[in-house]
Every structure is written in C-alpha cells, then in structure tokens.
Amino acid sequence: MLPNVPEGAPVLTAAAMRAAEDRAIAAGSSVAALMECAGTGVAEWVHRLAAGSEVLILCGPGNNGGDGYVAARVLASRGVPVRVAALGEPKTAAAAQARAAWSGPVEAFPGGLADGDTAPILVDAVFGTGLTRAVDDAVADAIRLLAGRARLSIAVDLPSGAETDSGGDFGAGKLANFDGTLALGALKPAHVLQPAARHCGAVRVIDIGLGSLDAVLRTSPRPQIAAPGPESHKYTRGMVAVVGGPMHGASELAARAAYRAGAGYVLLLTGGLPHPPHAIVRQRWSPDALADDRIGAVVIGPGLGRDDRAREKLEAALASDRPLVIDGDALHLLDGRLRGRDAPTILTPHAGEFAALFGAGTGSKIMQAQDAARKSGAVVVVKGADTVIAAPGGRVQVAAPTSAWLSVAGTGDVLAGTIGALLAQHVPPFDAASAGIWLHGAAARMIDRCFLADELADALPEALERAR
Ligand SMILES: NC(=O)C1=CN([C@@H]2O[C@H](COP(=O)(O)OP(=O)(O)OC[C@H]3O[C@@H](n4cnc5c(N)ncnc54)[C@H](OP(=O)(O)O)[C@@H]3O)[C@@H](O)[C@H]2O)[C@H](O)CC1
Ligand SMILES: [K+]
Predict the structure, then answer these.
(1) What are the residue boundaries of the YjeF N-terminal domain, all occurrences included (predicted)?
(2) Strand, helix or coil for residue 398
(3) What are the structural domains of the chain?
(4) Is the model's pLDDT at 337 over the cut of 90?
(5) Whether the complex's predicted ipTM surpasses the cut of 0.90
(6) Which residues carry a binding-site annotation for K(+)?
(7) Neighbour count for residue 377 (Cβ, 10 Å)
C-alpha cells in the first residue's frame, strides 16, 4: 500500500511558493504560463480518472480559480463533458485571462448548486494558497455537499478552506473530504499536517515548471537499510539496552521491536523470570548497568514508571555517554535535564507530552518542533497522525500519514525500540528517527486493520525488506 503523499519530497510554505513563482517569472516564465501548466496538469489527471463522466469545476476568484478555468478548457477540448461554476468574477489578471479563454457557460456558485446539484466528478478550484481568512459558511457547506455527493472529488492544490502553512481549517470544521488532491509545483504543509491532511485523500504533485525546489522541510524519505553482511556479528548489528520499570509489557514491546528492526542483541534491564521471547536477555537494573561499552543505544521510558526509582534510572541514563531514546514516562521526569548532554539524544513525545515538556507553543507543529529541538539540543519527534521530526540545527521532516490503526496502546513503545535499533547501528540520530518512523508507518500500512502492538513489532521485518 502506497503512502498518501510522495516520500522525500520538498514541502513549501505559501511564501516559499510565491518566491519560487517569482524566480520562475524572473527566468522568463509568467503567471499565465505557470497557470497553463497547472491547469493542463489538473486536466490530464481528471481526464484519466473521469473516464468520460461529467466533470463539475468550482472556480474561486483568485489564481486557484484560474487553474480551474484552464483545466475546464483543456478537458472540453478533449471531449470531456464539463460544467463550470464560479464564486464571482476573477480578481487577478491571469485568472481573468483563463476565464476569458473558457467559452462555455459559467453557473453561479454556491447559487443553485447549494442544494447539491453535482456531477459524478467534482473539482474544487475555489481557494488555494491565497486563502487568508475563514470561508463563508454557505461556500464551505456547498463544497462539502457537492464533494460528498460526487463519485470522485479532487481538490486543486489544496482542499478549499485548508490553511496552507499550518494545516489548520479556515472552513470552521466544514472542510470537505477529497479522494485526491493535486498539489501544484510542490507539497505544502497542509498536505501533511492535521487536520487538513486527512481531507486531502491521495496527494500527487504536478510539475508546473518551477524548476528544482530547495526546501528546509521535506516528507520523510524511504530509508535504505543494509542487510547484515558476512562480517556482521551480534554486536556490529547493534546492542540495545531497554531500561524497564513496573509496567513490564511496555518495555517488552520496545525490546521485541528492537530485535524486529534489526538489532543484534537486546538487553532488557528489568529483572524477573525468563519468558518468551528468550532472545531478549533479561537482567536486573543496577546503577552500572549501562557501563558496557558494547551498548550502542539505550531506550528509556516505556513502562518506566514515575517514582524515585524511575528518576534514578533516568539520571544514570542521562549521565552515561550512550545514545538515548527517551520516551513515555521518562519524558515526564526530564524537567530540562538534557542540557550539557553530548551523546545523541532523541525525544519521542506525543502531543500531550510535548506540551508538558515545552509548554503550549505558537506557530505550526513544524515550527514548534524545530524550536523544541533547538532548545533541548535533542532530535525531537512529535508523534501523531502528522509526526514531525526536528533536529537542533533546523533540519525537519514530516512523516507521510499512515494507518489510523496505529492509534492503540503500545505502538509508541514499538517505535522507541525501532528507533533504538537504528541508533545502536550508529545511524545518525535524525536519520535513525526518520527511518524508525518510516519502518513503523510502513509496518502499520502493511497490516492496515485492527492489530495489537505485538503484531506491529512482528511486521517490522517485512517493512525492513522494503527499505533495502
Ligand atoms: N504559486 C505558484 O507558483 C502558482 C500558483 N497557482 C495557483 O494559485 C493559487 C494561489 O492563488 P492566489 O490568487 O494567491 O490565491 P487563491 O486563489 O487561493 O485565493 C485568493 C483569492 O480568494 C479571495 N479570498 C481569500 N480568502 C477568501 C475568503 N475567505 N472568502 C472569499 N474570498 C476569499 C482573495 O480575495 P481578497 O479579498 O483576499 O483579495 C483572492 O481573490 C495556488 O493555490 C495555485 O492554485 C497558479 O495558477 C500557478 C502558479
Ligand atoms: K482548491
């Protein structure tokens, strides 16, 4: 099953898109030429998907609407039955030119369409990156109704009402659900950040002739993880120590996931009687338990508890020079104690843990993650339906949305163990976090039905095979 957004792709804000557009224009292109490319690209996709059915294109007053008029003209020239409905007259020169080149009738929108008079294929070209304020209820309601009634609904650039840079909702909770979104020139944050991302459906990028785009933010790429070679032994494949606590299941899951993600040796520091899987080496915790030089990474937090003993274990882990994955309970005990730590450190908070650690921030999830990474000096993974990975130097990625079945107990423990396995193999911390999230997401997508976290861990080898 493919991810819903392209992997390793640049993600540009509205301002960065305008800058790219300006560069293209300075190099000899024009808004009209870019719009022609965009509208033709949209028409090509719609033509393929419509298979002869009637298409209704909703056009807004800006250049997003302009793309819609171009698409209508190109589709009609190819014999596709097209209707156009517009929210007022075009306000930009390029959109007006595209409107003038459309020779068919233009219906009023929402007008008579507000009662749901749609076509089998609905194309939303009402608003794109230029939306700066809330959409009128009547407009948002009509788009949602029409998209819901269509057999196939496609958004041009963005679902109208999506806030480009934050992934927020200018549609006041009325964003329509689309089967697909055709991102023009590049992905925008709203294609990967919630709540907007879940309304996009499958996102595909249309090349509109902006040339190569450099972006600080990218979607996570598919990692390349080498299989063990003839020289490999259990320690070169990475030794992971999982520091457990009173909730044994959580640390067991992290340990199991570390093996399933390729670690050569997993030590579980909890004590207790041996039980399956016997490959996990169980030892009682002692203050010098992390002194073994062969330990390549320590995972601490899953099932750790929050009592004095847990604090003591965390102190020892922080004081060690081992690369660390800090998750779950350990995040609650941190209170700014990371300062001065030189060894690689990865924090994996979900939204609640993130807010408790770094406070309620402002700006998009991406900006908040970058800020937290800078302040803590750690790689910060803000988990969720739109997991963001940020490094202290400013590097940042958003993981492709994956299966919603991940929203179940234990999957965070599996992620911590997975990242630990990669970190123990000396993968640099940002790349270890990125690859771990990719493997975790790919395993979930492969199962894509109700599962236990144990089964997710057991699907990791299959995901690993896809990352060769
Ligand atoms: N960037 C590129 O390289 C290219 C992008 N293309 C397409 O252009 C849009 C962005 O176009 P833009 O004209 O900047 O903006 P929009 O079409 O998204 O919308 C702006 C118009 O909508 C009005 N507006 C804004 N908010 C509302 C609202 N809540 N209700 C009603 N009307 C609203 C706004 O009017 P103002 O009153 O604010 O002036 C504008 O008229 C991008 O997404 C791509 O689809 C090009 O086609 C190719 C190059
Ligand atoms: K749109």
Answers:
(1) 17-216
(2) strand
(3) 14-217 (3.40.50.10260), 239-466 (3.40.1190.20)
(4) no
(5) yes
(6) 64, 124, 160
(7) 15
